Amino acid sequence: MAKKRDRLEIIHDILLVIREKGDRIKPTHILYKSNLSYQMLTDYLNELIGKGLILTKEDKKGKRTYALTDKGYRFLTEFKMIRDFLESYGLD
Amino acid sequence: MAHLPFCPAWFSGFDIILQSVFAIVSLLVSLLAFRVHRATSAKPARMFGLSFLAIGLSYLIQALFNLLVWSGTDHSVCASIEQLTESILYDIGLYSHMALMTAGLALLAYMTFRVAKARIYLMLLSVAVVAIITSRNPLAVFAMVSSVLLAFIAWHFIGNWREHRSALTLLVAAGFLFMLVGEALLIFTYEDPLFYAVGHLLEMVAYLLMLANLILVIRNHG
Predict the structure, then answer these.
(1) Model ipTM?
(2) Which of B75, B104, B121, B192 could be stapled to B54 by a disulfide with Cβ–Cβ 3.0 to 4.6 Å?
């Protein structure tokens, strides 16, 4: 049985999906790729916006898309260090 | 060179080097915690950074004032003024160290309870400060209070190691255990100055273990 992802890994996965889609991804695509329920994904996306890791944009048709901020890119680069540090001190 | 109270003659000067190492390692941990907070906005990382900042500054100030006392000249015009100045400098260093260290350890202990009530932190800090400043032997009471706080902190990190069994969590848990024993030995400094030296050496082991953890965390990142 696959190990349950922790919160930090879920955030990492969401940010990774957004980056892979070239910073213009619709919520339905994130939902499909992140393997989360709609409600959980909405909560995570709101949290990531609040923390300044992602931002919302509108495409040509006026539909909402998501993109990474500089802080989001930095999170992905430093993810392993962040995870190891938080785990070392039980801050996760 | 002046001789610091409670420090064995053979250890004089080494304690200042060790305190400087403790300061550097604590400030590095703090720096990394703030970097993690900047990337994640995680509140525990910021509080953790603040607690290690206080601990690092406490050692930095102690090392600085001890250095001033230790390197004081013996050929002043008036020896009694020289002694008085050294005593005041030593006390400023010691009390600043105790205040910042208590604030840092109380914050660390508060964090381990995982409750978001600032009043609990203020209560921990108040009890510790009142116990220290009203004591006839502030240094021994400070060592006792620090040991109690470190016991709770070490308990948390041992639990963390049991939950995530890895070299990283083991290094931190072992580091805090050494810190606890080292601090507990400082309680007996009045009985025998040897405890001052052994306490410092054990704390050195603690900080080296934490430095090893930091190196592993940063190396894995690279």
Answers:
(1) 0.83
(2) B104
The answer as to whether A90 is a domain residue is: no
**With an 8 Å Cβ cutoff, is B162 touching chain A?**
no
CA-to-CA separations, B196 to B50, B86, B91, B140, B164, in angstroms, rounded: 27, 20, 17, 11, 34
For residue B221, the model assigns a pLDDT of 65
Q: Which of A71, A74, A88 sits opposite B213 (nearest CB)?
A: A88
Residue A31 lies in a domain: yes
- A92 in a structural domain: no
A84 and B220: CB-CB below 8 Å? yes
Structural domain of residue A13, as residue ranges?
A: 7-85
CATH number, domain of A17, equals 1.10.10.10
* Position B220 pLDDT exceeds 60: yes
Q: How many other CB atoms are there within 10 angstroms of residue A43's CB atom?
A: 12
pLDDT (tens digit, 9 = 90+) per residue, B72-90?
A: 755 555 666 667 777 788 8
Is A68 contained in some domain? yes
Rounded distance between C-alpha atoms, residue A7 and residue B81, angstroms:
61
Is the Cβ pair A85, B33 closer than 8 Å? yes
